[in-house]
């Protein structure tokens, strides 16, 4: 089987619009959370979000396309263009039919639906945009990426809520490992700071409703009360080791393991026994031919909800046994908020950078320990240490669990 390596990365996030600025923010504990400015929240209980800032989609797309596309496409295109540029993929050094795109989103162009449904109800069917459907469907970001670059290989869109990004990366790894593709551009994107989304999440009591950004997204802290919605995208270029070496690409890290499972328990709550999540974590470690003792860092799902960290801690303990207290853990959602379908993709990038620079990014905002979350969660300040192996957990609504393992090359 082919080894699978990462040769390019791109990111649009609440704490930076490229990988260097994103990573610098994580290392220094910069918080990307603030008052929501994208729409009027006067009538909303939720007031805070982690918005993308100073981003111009026309740097990456034609004005006409940018105008009609949802912001999830804007973020995806920007991240993909950054990643492909870093990877050095150019016409002639890849086979279009062996270069795929596996790029997901949790809700896709929900904002398009939000804009078009009132037109239907108030002005009639003739006023609905002819672009409503193609710009609304979740797979259209993957389509835009493939059309921009001429990638004609496997092209599809995993949709598994918060686990979307890891499913994209994991399935891309498998496609390459088993010889179906040479290169896959993969990741996830989300435009979730919109009225319908925020109203739905606030009414199910899933999001934090306070107004202090420093006490909003506080994973593993006893005060945590709900996640903070983020937005943006992350993209990775995966390719076979053979293909990368043949074209002289710079190899950033290796995607060596992938595990996935389903809780079969509840539409929103993780399973209290943590067993299925632990199965996914163990699966990623075993898939890489490693043991829990080999893992240096876990980028936790860590959403800052009362249930997630309690049950994720149980899952990590079940997967790692006695090693659970020896591994560094942190949640970068303390800085970025929760990017839903884009979360795991930017967190995979954080793992790559942690390995490359030997730095564990912190869990910021941590003040009050929770005895049920007693792992080493790297509170408030980054830690310098050698990191050879990192894993990233993603646990999505509906019980979708996906874990990837990244290691140094």
TrEMBL record:
Domain Ketosynthase family 3 (KS3) intervals: 1-408
Alphabetized CDD domains for the sequence: KAS_I_II (cd00834)
GO biological process: fatty acid biosynthetic process
GO cellular component, one term: cytosol
Reaction it catalyzes: a fatty acyl-[ACP] + malonyl-[ACP] + H(+) = a 3-oxoacyl-[ACP] + holo-[ACP] + CO2; (9Z)-hexadecenoyl-[ACP] + malonyl-[ACP] + H(+) = 3-oxo-(11Z)-octadecenoyl-[ACP] + holo-[ACP] + CO2
InterPro entries to which the protein is assigned, alphabetical: 3-oxoacyl-ACP_synth-2, Beta-ketoacyl_synthase, Ketoacyl_synth_AS, Ketoacyl_synth_C, Ketoacyl_synth_N, PKS_Beta-ketoAc_synthase_dom, Thiolase-like
Active-site residue list: 162
Single GO MF descriptor: 3-oxoacyl-[acyl-carrier-protein] synthase activity
UniProt EC number: 2.3.1.179
Pathway(s): Lipid metabolism; fatty acid biosynthesis
Uppermost EC category: transferase
Protein's UniProt keywords contain Thylakoid: no
Record-linked PROSITE patterns: KS3_1 (PS00606), KS3_2 (PS52004)
Domain of life: Bacteria
Sorted UniProt keywords: Acyltransferase, Fatty acid biosynthesis, Fatty acid metabolism, Lipid biosynthesis, Lipid metabolism, Transferase
Coiled-coil ranges from the UniProt annotation: none
Function: Involved in the type II fatty acid elongation cycle. Catalyzes the elongation of a wide range of acyl-ACP by the addition of two carbons from malonyl-ACP to an acyl acceptor. Can efficiently catalyze the conversion of palmitoleoyl-ACP (cis-hexadec-9-enoyl-ACP) to cis-vaccenoyl-ACP (cis-octadec-11-enoyl-ACP), an essential step in the thermal regulation of fatty acid composition.
Family from the record: Belongs to the thiolase-like superfamily. Beta-ketoacyl-ACP synthases family.
NCBIfam families according to UniProt: fabF, PRK07314.1
Protein name: 3-oxoacyl-[acyl-carrier-protein] synthase 2
């Amino acid at each position: 089987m082919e080894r699978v390596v990462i040769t390019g990365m791109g990111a649009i996030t609440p704490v930076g619009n490229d990988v260097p600025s994103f990573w610098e923010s994580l290392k220094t504990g910069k918080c990307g959370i603030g008052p929501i400015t994208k729409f009027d929240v006067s009538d909303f209980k939720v007031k805070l979000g982690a918005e993308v800032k100073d981003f111009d989609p026309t740097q990456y797309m034609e004005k006409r396309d940018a105008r009609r596309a949802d912001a999830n496409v804007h973020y995806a295109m920007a991240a993909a263009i950054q990643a492909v540029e870093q990877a050095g993929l150019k016409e002639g050094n890849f086979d279009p039919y062996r270069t795929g795109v596996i790029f997901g989103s949790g809700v896709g162009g929900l904002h398009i639906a939000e804009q078009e449904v009132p037109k239907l109800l108030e002005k009639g069917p003739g006023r609905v945009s002819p672009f409503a459907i193609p710009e609304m469907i979740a797979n259209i970001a993957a389509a835009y990426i493939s059309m921009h670059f001429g990638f004609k290989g496997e092209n599809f869109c995993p949709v598994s809520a918060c686990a979307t990004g890891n499913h994209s990366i994991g399935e891309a790894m498998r496609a390459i490992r088993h010889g179906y593709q040479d290169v896959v551009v993969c990741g996830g994107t989300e435009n979730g700071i919109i009225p319908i989304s925020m109203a739905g999440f606030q009414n199910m009591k899933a999001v934090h409703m306070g107004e202090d950004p420093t006490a909003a997204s506080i994973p593993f802290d006893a005060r945590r009360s709900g996640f903070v919605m983020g937005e943006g995208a992350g993209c990775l270029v995966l390719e076979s080791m053979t293909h990368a070496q043949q074209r002289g690409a710079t190899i950033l890290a290796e995607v060596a393991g992938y595990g996935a499972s389903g809780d079969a328990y509840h539409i929103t709550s993780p399973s209290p026994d943590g067993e299925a999540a632990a199965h996914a974590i163990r699966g990623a470690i075993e898939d890489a031919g490693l043991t829990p003792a080999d893992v240096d860092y876990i980028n936790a799902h860590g959403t800052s909800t009362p249930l997630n960290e309690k049950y994720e801690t149980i899952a990590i303990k079940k997967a790692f046994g006695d090693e659970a207290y020896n591994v560094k853990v942190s949640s970068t959602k303390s800085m970025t908020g929760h990017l839903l379908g884009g979360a795991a993709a930017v967190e995979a990038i954080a793992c790559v950078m942690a390995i490359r620079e030997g730095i564990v990014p912190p869990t910021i905002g941590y003040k009050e320990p929770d005895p049920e979350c007693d792992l080493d969660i790297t509170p408030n300040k980054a830690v310098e240490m050698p990191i050879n192996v990192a894993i990233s957990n993603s646990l999505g609504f509906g019980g979708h669990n996906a874990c990837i393992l990244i290691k140094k090359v």
